[in-house]
Amino acid sequence: MLNEFSLIEQYFLNNKKQRPDSIVGIGDDGAVTRVQPNHDLVTVTDTMVNGVHFDESTPPRAIGHKIVAVNLSDLAAMGAEPCWISLALTLPDADETWLSEFAAGLHEICQYYDCTLIGGDTTRGPLTVTVTAQGQVPAGEAITRSGAKPGDWLYVSGPLGDAGLGLDMTQQADMATGPHLQRLVERLYYPHPRVALGQTLRNVAGACIDISDGLLADLQHLLSSSGVAADIELDKIPLSLAMTETLSQDAAYKKALTAGDDYELCFTVEEHNRGRLETLTAHLKNKPICIGRITQLREPAIQFKLHGEVYELPLEYQGYNHFNNSVTAKD
Ligand SMILES: [Mg+2]
């Protein structure tokens, strides 16, 4: 096995372009970064464990991409510009093919978002990858989960459920996969965090969260942080063509509400900011979709309407528990 130093040397002490605000990077006891004046630093961490968040069939390149993407998605939800990441890597052995593919996936997404890898650690053990990402936001402008108020409109940033459907297709050999397989598996393996949209939502969204565990689970977090409830119009929830052509309507809505790993944003907007949101997002291919409205706190916190009528969700939706629902469940 390569020793720790040569592992880092070979795959992570990269000669890629570094951000000028990374003053001291990999190779010293600590990294030194320079935060812009009048900005706040936002720090997030996510771990992915073999057998829990991915399995042996997941390409190492996808693992490298995704561990960065899920962190950048959390930064996006806070309205932050991603700047720096550090990596803690636990490996059962130094498989060089695995490492080079993993590093390629990680470097690609870092380069794309101008995010510099500034440090890390490698240890021997069961395969586990942890990334801490840091981003900046103008002082006082970070978006939190707790700013939703009754009367605000509720939005999601794009179609939901595709990654979950892609996961089913990779795991269920008997499932009819159809022409959309490749696109859905891409959504699962190579999610695109909504980095630009998150920054656009500063001073526009009252509250925001990224959808990592499914709309119902993540919206619950936003509602309880804000002390409010929500009405959702089921038929407004955006579904991709791949979704509607693969599943029945009921199964598609269930997937969109409960499946994780989409990394879209869910956010609230006050009435007087709706036009501003529309103007700021007019150029986007996937425009944010209004799916409901925030109400005063009540039980249950989420109520549904279908074509304007109150709609009781089947019980199994509400019993959803992300800890035992999918191999990609994450908290
Ligand atoms: Mg999150």
Automatic annotation (TrEMBL):
PurM-like N-terminal domain segment(s): 27-137
Enzyme class: transferase
Superkingdom in the source lineage: Bacteria
InterPro entries the UniProt entry points to: PurM-like_C_dom, PurM-like_C_sf, PurM-like_N, PurM-like_N_sf, ThiL-like
Pathway in which this enzyme or protein is active: Cofactor biosynthesis; thiamine diphosphate biosynthesis; thiamine diphosphate from thiamine phosphate: step 1/1
One GO biological process term: thiamine biosynthetic process
Positions annotated to bind Mg(2+) 1: T45, D46, D121
Residues the record lists as binding substrate: H53, D261, Y320
Catalytic activity reported: thiamine phosphate + ATP = thiamine diphosphate + ADP
Binding-site residues, Mg(2+) 3: D29, D74, D210
Any one GO MF annotation of this record: ATP binding
Chain positions recorded as Mg(2+) 2 binding sites: D46, D74
UniProt-annotated binding residues for ATP: G120, D121, R145, S212
CDD domains linked to this entry: ThiL
Chain ranges of the PurM-like C-terminal domain: 149-295
EC number, as in UniProt: 2.7.4.16
Binding residue positions for Mg(2+) 4: D29, D74
Residues noted as binding Mg(2+) 5 in the record, renumbered to the chain: D213
Kinase found in the keyword field: yes
Keywords associated with the record: ATP-binding, Kinase, Magnesium, Metal-binding, Nucleotide-binding, Thiamine biosynthesis, Transferase
Note: Reaction mechanism of ThiL seems to utilize a direct, inline transfer of the gamma-phosphate of ATP to TMP rather than a phosphorylated enzyme intermediate.
Record's function text: Catalyzes the ATP-dependent phosphorylation of thiamine-monophosphate (TMP) to form thiamine-pyrophosphate (TPP), the active form of vitamin B1.
Family affiliation: Belongs to the thiamine-monophosphate kinase family.
Protein name from the UniProt record: Thiamine-monophosphate kinase
Organism: Idiomarina seosinensis
Lineage of origin: Bacteria, Pseudomonadati, Pseudomonadota, Gammaproteobacteria, Alteromonadales
